[in-house]
Design brief:
about 675 residues; elongated; seven-stranded mixed β-sheet; about 5% strand; alpha/beta
């Protein structure tokens, strides 16, 4: 037992006592050690009391001593460094002369500055965006030091300045430790991520830098898997492995079933990802089975060539079918005129007349010219115009149609009168002055060359562009717009409108416009390059290139205000006849009325504001809703008319809301919205 006590005593003397003594010396003489002496120094820094509180230092992460090579440069300014060095000198002197009290002050100051350096250095290197509460205190010391040298120059002793700095620093340190809980929470938040506001700003930037995946990325992946699977099935190595062939066919069926009619990833079923992974595994097996890539590359090239050829054929078929659909009349629209014609001829002669016929030549009223063979389309134009007119009784509609639709057109407006407005329906056959001897275009339309151009499409010299082969160009109704003074000899102004428009505002302001000596008032369409003169006219012909500018701005038919007095004065109809005769072989322009209109009204067109007339609803699905809603007239120019099934769905309601689908004639002909 005595031996054990002796051993324990020796162990205490040789092991435990040095540890206790060393720890005590470290706490006493910490200020005399350099920051690079050993790693043990840095580990014990956290135990140094900052104004008697160890919790503050324990909140910060410990670091290696290599990060404290130049801590002063990271924390203090030049003035502060100079002040601290002076402080050190004076402290040494004071320590020598003044005894223990001055030495204790030096040790306390050394501990405080070491703590500040450790904390500030840690925050600068590891958390550059955080704000250390200790650094706030040292910043206050820096501001004090910038003022102290001036006071030194006034005669104050250095020792007094050092003592004042020490007291000020001690006071601020006491304030920091006094608000312990609040500062500790802020320091904890700082160590976790710094200021909350800055990460919130930085986080969206990181998200913006990362491109968002397309909404159909997984669908494309599944389709690519099917293509790869088909390639593997066609390779000899796969055909010789019936087990793998069955597996890959099964995977193809699963993927195709998962795809279904989905157009975006959100439409896929929940198990689509599992099918995708299973197919990836199967395709990986197929890849390992292939001895060489040449056969797969050859097969993929063949598939690519075949797909491109199919795409070309489908595009051609789509174009043909679209043009064919635009030319044909829906069954309901074919039924409607037949039904109306039957009813019209059942009326007696007195019931076939329209009221207010005395207004037809009144120059004080607002006159519209509408040339159409489509009863329902003409009804929409009239209904939409009257609905938005401020005074419907002052509006007169002159409708000209062909012989087949004359009775139906009259019957419709007899049964559905446009309120107080006046209607006139005329038959083009009644214009006896319009004959082949007077009109070159009428002579050309009846020529054998024109008939061959339209009906013998197999000939090599026929035009491949189906757009110019529409039978509407054979109708003289399409060319009546060049004979307005002959049709309305007593009217000063006429508003020409197409039958594929919808009126959304009152149009009476057009009659009061000053056209400044021009004949035609129209909205220009040169916002894009393909709506300029070189798009419609053949500038390789010298007659065109010498007289017109290829970059001149085009304009639109569909809603045009014509000054008929200026028309007669400038002999516009004769200008039109001259150019039509020069184009007998269609070398100046193709068929249609816009190219001869551009030539006839060259430098005679007054540009209207774009808000009067918006075009493109019959071919352009990207017309802005804002432009549509603020426009006085919207125009369904193009093949996708609103009364056809191929009409653009999102624009159809602007037209169909002016059709009464509950009307007895529409129900009998099965015309539905």
């Amino acid at each position: 037992m005595m031996v054990r006590n002796v051993v324990i005593g020796m162990l205490f003397i040789t092991v435990i006592a040095p540890i206790v003594l060393y720890t005590d010396r470290l706490g006493t003489f910490q200020g005399f050690y350099s920051s690079s002496s050993s790693n043990g120094f840095v580990e014990d820094v956290t135990t140094i009391a900052f104004n008697g509180d160890t919790g503050r230092l324990n909140l910060l992460p410990q670091e290696s001593a290599t990060k404290f090579k130049e801590p002063i440069g990271l924390v203090f300014s030049d003035n502060e460094t100079q002040s601290l060095s002076n402080s050190g000198v004076s402290t040494s002197l004071s320590s020598t002369d003044g005894g223990d009290s001055e030495q204790d002050w030096q040790l306390g100051e050394s501990r405080e500055h070491v703590s500040a350096r450790v904390l500030s250095t840690t925050n600068v290197e590891d958390h550059p965006q955080t704000v250390n509460p200790i650094k706030k205190v040292t910043d206050g010391v820096q501001q004090e030091n910038q003022i102290k040298p001036v006071r030194n120059g006034e005669g104050n002793s250095k020792e007094g300045v050092i003592k004042a700095e020490s007291k000020e620093f001690q006071r601020k340190s006491d304030g920091v430790s006094g608000d312990q809980k609040v500062k500790r929470e802020k320091a904890s938040a700082t160590s976790r991520g710094g200021d909350k506001r800055e990460p919130e700003k930085a986080r969206p930037e990181k998200q913006n830098d990362r491109p968002l995946p397309p909404p159909d990325a997984r669908i494309k992946h599944l389709k690519d898997q099917i293509v790869r699977a088909r390639v593997y099935l066609s390779l000899p190595s796969t055909k010789n492995n019936p087990h793998f062939t069955r597996e890959i066919r099964l995977r193809m069926k699963e993927v195709q079933r998962a795809l279904g009619d989905a157009s975006k990833d959100s439409d896929l079923p929940r198990n689509a990802y599992e099918k995708l992974k299973a197919m990836d595994v199967t395709l990986a097996k197929g890849k390992q089975m292939q001895d060489e890539c040449a056969a797969a590359v050859k097969k993929l090239r063949a598939m690519l060539h075949s797909t491109e050829e199919q795409l070309r054929v489908h595009k051609k078929q789509t174009l043909f079918l679209t043009q064919l659909t635009a030319k044909t009349i829906p069954k309901g629209l074919h039924c409607l005129p037949l039904r109306l014609t039957t009813e019209y001829y059942a009326l007696n002669s007195s019931q076939q007349e329209f009221p207010n016929q005395e207004k037809l030549e009144d120059p004080q009223l607002y006159h519209y010219a509408l040339f159409s063979d489509n009863v329902l389309a003409a009804a929409v134009v009239v209904n939409s115009t009257i609905m938005h007119a401020k005074n419907p009784a002052n509006h007169v509609f002159h409708i000209v149609t062909d012989r087949l639709n004359y009775a139906a057109m009259r019957m419709w407006f007899l049964v559905n009168p446009p309120g107080k407005a006046t209607i006139q329906v005329q038959n083009i056959e009644e214009f006896t002055w319009l004959n082949a001897s007077y009109s070159p275009v009428l002579k050309q339309l009846g020529s054998q060359a024109m008939i061959d151009y339209y009906f013998r499409t197999h000939r090599a010299n026929s035009d491949s562009n189906l757009k110019f082969r529409n039978p509407k160009y054979l109708s003289i109704l399409n060319h009546l717009r060049f004979y307005l003074p002959q049709i309305f000899p007593k009217l000063p102004k006429v508003l020409f409108v197409d039958d594929d428009i919808v009126v959304q505002k009152d149009l009476t302001g057009l009659w009061s416009l000053n056209l400044k000596g021009n004949v035609n008032g129209a909205v220009e369409t040169c916002g894009e390059s393909f709506h300029r003169f070189d798009r419609y006219l053949n500038f390789s012909n010298p007659l065109i290139s010498k007289n017109f500018d290829p970059h001149a701005c085009g304009w639109a038919y569909g809603m045009n205000i014509f000054d008929l007095n200026q028309w007669k004065r400038q002999n516009i109809t004769e200008v039109y006849h001259t150019w039509q005769k020069l184009n007998h072989d269609r070398q100046l322009w193709k068929l249609g009325t816009l190219p001869p209109g551009l030539i006839t009204f060259w430098k005679r067109t007054y540009p209207l504001d774009r808000s009067w007339h918006v075009l493109g609803l019959g071919y352009n699905p990207n017309v802005g809703q804002r432009d549509i809603e603020r426009s006085a007239v919207i125009h369904y120019n193009g093949n996708m008319k609103p009364w056809l099934e191929i009409g653009i769905p999102k624009y159809r309601n602007y037209w169909s809301k002016y059709v009464d689908y509950d009307h007895v004639y529409l129900r009998e002909c099965n015309i539905n919205p």
